[in-house]
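Section 3.1: Structural characterization of target chains.
Under the original work plan, the team committed to producing a structural model for every single-chain target entering the pipeline before any wet-lab resources were allocated. The record below documents one such target. The sequence was received from the expression subgroup and is listed exactly as submitted; it comprises 376 residues.
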Amino acid sequence: MKTINTKLEEIDALINGVIEEQGVGISVSIVKNGKLIFAKGYGYAQLEPTPKLIDENTYMSIQSVTKNFVSVCMMKLVEEDLIHLDKPIVHYLPYFRTKEKGSSDHITVRQVLSHTSGFPADLGIANLVAPNVREIYSDTPTEWSEALAHYRLKEEEVTSIHSREDITRWFRKVELDYPPGHTWNYCTDAYVILGDLIEKVTGESWESFLQNRFITPLQMKRTTADVRIIMDDDNYAKYYMGPDKIETPYPTNSLAAPIGFLYSTATDLAAYMLFHLNKEFNQLLDVSSKKEMQSRESRVSQDWDNETNTCFYGLGWFIEDYKGHTIVEHGGGQMAVRALISLVPEESIGIAILLNFDSSVHRDISSKIMDIMLDL
């Protein structure tokens, strides 16, 4: 059996090799048995105008890992008896409906959390309300109009959205692909509805609720949904695509923040993973709630499986069996953002990997770290 120091040296060499081959930046943290045992950055946070090294405290977009933070907020509301997972969304948001009101009246909180509500997979509305969306779709003169056509949206539809409630109300034009509770279908836009629900139930924004109940108690001092904080900081990552490492528009979308617009660091995500793994944090969220989040609500569609592993979705977690171990994880990605947190609950291991370039190498790194840590 290798010592922990030997394992960490192997991991360090592994990531050094990857960054030398790939270029740009990787930030990683590992927790084990209630402690942060590894946190380090490799490569660069920014290439222009002056190269800046990345480290474990570099602000980075975590994209859809954000959805797990939404889920813990929902579970906290359950504990406070403010919501019930199996009650319909319309019980809390009476204006919510889809094209077929008779069906959407039965869509529950649990179904939206677990992507089993029957919504189509890619509606587009939440991402297209980003303030820099025209910059994102500017590679060709027609790219913006092509994006609208792809999502069957009109420009006035997009520009009329000014709040999360507006997005919830927009769902009245949506036709369900499946009956509620019937099939898993990953609908990123639907998590805006949950952000709206949190605001209506608590009287405060999702960001404020998250900050007060989890971020501040966990001392995650470099985790925020406020992009202005990022831009005022000296240590944040820019994002690069393709072999020529072309800088992309910065990922920002405060209106649709619950779908994937939190920013964090490898060090802060270590604290977040320890919260999920350790009983000492049960005053923030009970162990029963954490277990329910990790329950297998639905088999995911086969195109979401990781290689040969059958994958399930819980409440803000993907769950799979990996070489005899249960892994719970959530990833995120958009353009050149890549993020992944992975837990092995029975071994009290957590791994966070953040990239600022377009690649699937974060999953390879996570698997290899897992193998090293589990002596596989």
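The two ends are 10 Å apart (CA to CA).
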